[in-house]
Amino acid sequence: QGQLVESGGGLVQPGGSLRLSCVASGFTLTWYTMTWHRQAPGKERELVATIFTPGTTNYAASVKDRFTISRDNAKNTVYLQMNSLKPDDTAVYYCYAPARKTWGQGTQVTVSS
Questions:
Q1: How many CB atoms lie within 10 A of CB 94?
Q2: In this structure, are residues 37 and 101 in contact, taking their beta carbons and an 8 Å threshold?
Q3: Do 92 and 38 touch, CB atoms closer than 8 A?
Q4: CA 68 – CA 85 distance, rounded (Å)
Q5: How many CA atoms lie within 13 A of 91 on its CB side?
Q6: 107-111 and 10-12 as β-strands: parallel, antiparallel, unpaired?
Q7: 70 has which bridge partners?
Q8: Distance of alpha carbon 86 from alpha carbon 66, whole angstroms
Q9: DSSP structure string for 14-50
Q10: What are φ and ψ of residue 96, in 5° steps?
Q11: Closest CA to 107 of 11, 3, 10
């Protein structure tokens, strides 16, 4: 089995920053590619960032150079550091372990003045 729990969402002004966390239980994150996705109201869920098992990363064009995905193996946690936030970044953010087909419950991020 296994479970993912996200936290760190909230309301932030445009230009601000947030760091999302995704803690895994029941499996070891180190062994898996992990992804962050987001879904805005009325839109499809989209892939935002990927971290592969060697530690290499990939980003959607819309967040490249603003978002950073990382992992802390000791804490079994994946992070998404989000800087220079824009209103278009408003969405529910989910972490996902593709090989396990395991989603977190999501955390709301709202960027508004």
A1: 21
A2: no
A3: yes
A4: 12
A5: 21
A6: parallel
A7: 79
A8: 10
A9: TT--EEEEEEEESS-GGGS-EEEEEE-TTS--EEEEE
A10: -150, 140
A11: 10
Q: Nearest CA to 1 among 96, 100, 104?
A: 100
Round to whole Å and give the CA distance between 47 and 58.
Answer: 10
DSSP-assigned beta bridge partners for residue 109: 10, 91
The token pair at 110 is 């709202």
HEC letters along 48-80: EEEECCCCCEEECCCCCCCEEEEEEHHHCEEEE
Q: How far apart are CA 69 and CA 25, in angstroms?
A: 19
- pLDDT, averaged in runs of 10, over the chain (113 residues): 94 98 94 97 97 94 98 96 98 97 97 97
